[in-house]
Amino acid sequence: MGRLIRSERLDPLHADLVKVVRAAAPELPFDLLVVEGLRSKETQRKYVERGSSKTMNSRHLTGHAVDLSPLIDGQLVQDWQLYYKIAPVMKATAKKLGVDIEWGGDWKSPKDGPHWQLSWKKYPVITYSAMNATETEQPVPDDAVVASGRTKLEESKVNTSTVTVATTTLAATSEALRSTSDIKTYIGGLAEWLPYIFAGVAICGIIWLLYLYCKPCRKLIGKE
């Protein structure tokens, strides 16, 4: 009959995951060590940086996952033969308790023998803390379906396209307003010169009339 070692690490985790681990441990022929349960974002970021993990959307961040390893004579043993002995016991216990769990050893790549998590399908966005009995909304994975009927990734692309169109429209509007402002400035400058333009035209008109109807003026300029 196996014992559960460092069981306090289960305290912040989802109650359904906790009851599966606690029920399965005594059915094993060796002790079971709770290696890691709830994980901080800072720790997860370090794991990603060093290649131990491939995602910043780990179920460890929300209390939906736990890493378990066998203890033989008080020593942690990372052996796939032992992981394969743990797997059927965990799966059978979960099925008996009506809990939908997933094993990292069933993944195609990369396989993760110690890793156990509640399924995204049955536990998508809500985490229940056995320690504080509160429910909190958590980020959903990229392949989870959101309210619009699209996946989160597809929804993100739609939102990005909307933002891009809005930004382009705003830029075009800004350019149009800038052009309108330039026209107004040009017209305003032209208006300042209108009195001088009218005065010049009037003077030219007077000179032309004098030339047509004033003989002394024509003689003065030598045209008669």
Protein model, in words:
This protein is rod-shaped. It is an alpha+beta fold. It has five helices and eight strands, in the order E-H-E-H-E-E-H-E-E-E-E-H-H. The protein has helices at 15-24, 41-49, 80-97, 152-213, 215-220; strands spanning 4-5, 31-36, 65-72, 75-76, 101-103, 115-118, 126-128, 135-137. The strands form two sheets. Strands 1, 2, 3, 4, 5 and 6 form a six-stranded mixed β-sheet that branches.
Q: Summarize the main sheet.
A: 6 strands, mixed
Give the terminus-to-terminus CA distance. 136 Å
How many E-type strands?
A: 8
What low-confidence regions span 5 or more consecutive residues with pLDDT below 50? 126-171, 176-181
Class based on secondary structure composition and strand pairing: alpha+beta
Evaluate the radius of gyration.
40 Å
Helix share, percent: 40-55%
State the CATH topology of the largest domain: Muramoyl-pentapeptide Carboxypeptidase, domain 2
What's the CATH class of the largest domain, please? Alpha Beta
Pattern of helices and strands: EHEHEEHEEEEHH
Rounded average pLDDT: 76
- Indicate the proportion of strand residues: 5-15%
Level-2 CATH architecture of the largest domain: 2-Layer Sandwich
Oligomer: single chain
The total number of structural domains is 2
Number of helices: 5
Principal-axes geometry comes out as: rod-shaped
Give the helix/strand layout:
Elements: E1 4-5, H1 15-24, E2 31-36, H2 41-49, E3 65-72, E4 75-76, H3 80-97, E5 101-103, E6 115-118, E7 126-128, E8 135-137, H4 152-213, H5 215-220
Helix pairs in contact: 1-3
